[in-house]
Amino acid sequence: MNTYASTHSSGANVSQPSPEAVIEQVQRHLAEAYAEELFNTVRDKCFMKCVTKPSSSLSGNESSCISRCVDRYMEATGITSRAVFNSIPREY
Amino acid sequence: MDSSRDTAELQKLLEQEKSRAMLNELVNKLTSVCWDKCVGTPGSKFSSSETACLSNCAQRYLETSALIVRRFTSMQQ
Fold first, then answer.
1. For the complex shown, is ipTM > 0.85?
2. Where is the Tim10-like domain (chain A) (predicted)?
3. pTM
4. Chain B residues near residue A68 by CB distance under 8 angstroms
5. Do A72 and B46 touch (CB under 8 A)?
6. CA B65 to CA B68: how far, in whole Å?
């Protein structure tokens, strides 16, 4: 019945997943949440920058603007990320 | 076998994940705010002024944050 215990060698504590397994699941959920947040943000930012007068279809200009926008936003993320990590005092 | 040791270990790992998550949130917020301030129409690369603005913006934002913490702290004294 307990398939978790049968596929994991640490038979002693059958009802508790290991700390590592819990953390792995937490990290997966977080990664998913971040991907969704990033998607939503980029979509909103790039729509705002590139589609200033919505018409009956996306023009070639609008499409290329959106592509460039996505690339630039990822680049901007790198720049701010470096600023944050450079501001953390070095740990022992 | 020792579930209290597991709990302590889990606690420690969760604290690390929490720190990482907070850092991630900060980066996301910073990018969003500084993008609005610094970037015009997206080109095939950033101009040097856009790059400088983004970098400056991030640092100034962090300094602003620290300043506000100090301000609130001194208000409570």
1. yes
2. 25-83
3. 0.82
4. 42-44
5. yes
6. 5
